[in-house]
Amino acid sequence: MAKKQNKKSKNKAKSTQNKNQKIAPKQSIPETKLKDKRSLSKNEILFFRVGVTIVALGLVVAAIVMIVNYYMGQEEVGPYDDYQHFITEEIVAMTQKINDTTYGDLDYFVGKSDYDEFRVILNDNDVFYFYFYDGNNINEEIQTTIEGLENISELPLIFVDLSEPYNTELLTNTSLTHLNLDAEADDMLLIYDMQPDSVDGFFELETDVDDIILALQNI
């Protein structure tokens, strides 16, 4: 009997000891961690890719605009760009040979708003000066002389840039052979007298720089 009581006493002690021990609470996973583990949906991935693409395209367009603006700003401006210029077609209209005593089809300039200012000069002058030059090789002496002229826009002075794409066939145009233009000359000044004293006085061509400067000074 004594042994049985001892066993019960031990069991009772263990039971009491187990009851006195605290049970550790179950750890819960924070809600934020659960959300972090959630994978992105297909729509979210699609929107993300679209957003990245739009941003990338925007940067590319901005870069292109900046490059274009840079090179446009670097474009050189010729010293005569603001003055009256003619291209081959207009020179032909102005100087083409109709017969031995008549040159030019002045009706070409009638009824066109682009020539409103030029028609005023055309009506007020009988002698015109055509300065042929190479826009890629400006003669500084002639440039200085021209810059010294007053009211250039009102003078019967017409500029012809031989480097202009529209003038590539000017020197070989059959409608201009009577002008005797010099394909080897760097600069030429054609003087066109619309009311000469003789049939031989319609056109005079200067190719020497000094002669060109002198003629320009006498406009």
| Average pLDDT taken over every residue | 83
Q: Strands across the major sheet, in which order? A: 4-3-5-6
- Low-confidence stretches are 1-14
Q: End-to-end distance, in Å?
A: 150 Å
CA gyration radius, whole angstroms: 46 Å
User: From the 3D coordinates, which CATH architecture of the largest domain would you assign?
Assistant: 3-Layer(aba) Sandwich
Name the overall outline.
elongated
How many beta strands in the DSSP annotation? 6
The number of domains is 2
Task: Count every helix, treating DSSP H or I runs of 4 or more residues as helices.
Answer: 7
Strand composition percent: 5-15%
Order of helices and strands: HHHHEEHEHEEEH
Q: Sketch the major β-sheet.
A: 4 strands, mixed
The CATH topology of the largest domain turns out to be Glutaredoxin
Which range best describes the helical content: under 10%, 10-25%, 25-40%, 40-55%, 55-70% or over 70%?
40-55%
Q: State the secondary-structure class.
A: alpha+beta
| CATH class call of the largest domain | Alpha Beta
